Hints:
alpha/beta, Tetrahydropterin Synthase, Chain A, seven-stranded mixed beta sheet, 7 helices, lyase, EC 4.1.2.50
Amino acid sequence: MLIRKLFKFENAHIVRGCSTRRCSHSVHGHSYKVELLLEAHALDRGQMVYDFGLLKRGARDLIDAFDHAVTLWSEDDPAYVAAMQQHSERWIVLPVSPSAEQFSRVIFRLVDAVLAQTDMANGEADVGLHSVIVHETETGYAQCFREDVENPYMGTIDLRDITFSAAISREWGDPDLFERLKLGKLRAPASHESISDAAIT
């Protein structure tokens, strides 16, 4: 069974090397929609695949980090990267170009790491991230599956090569969230107590 949770954020980028000059030579933004599709073949004690409220613990903060931020490619012109970091307090540096395709791979890597470090405590069974869909426009999206994240022909995504600005990490419920995630020390417990999905924006 699959379940889906939708997130939204506003983000700016340049996609170097793409065919459209406006996209490859000018900073521009999109209203992104991100769909997380979780999969399991059994239900927990609440007869759910996974309580959406549990995504508040880490996954939501990491996706929200991209909101009102500029996303930069570490291999872009150093002067451009430095200028954007100087003039925007919310920025993220990725080891891959910030296309919709790469956003879907990066977000898959981030959320998958959170799930892998979550202690399931309500009878959840074999819950996994099936895929991530990133809508860049109303008519276009990219969908990433696990094999895409591991595909070396699409570029390597190591959590250690992702940097969030200090202004972003200060807003997290746990400012050390990403550092602990990279070290494999997140171990967020899944609660027996349901967290209302209505509280998630």
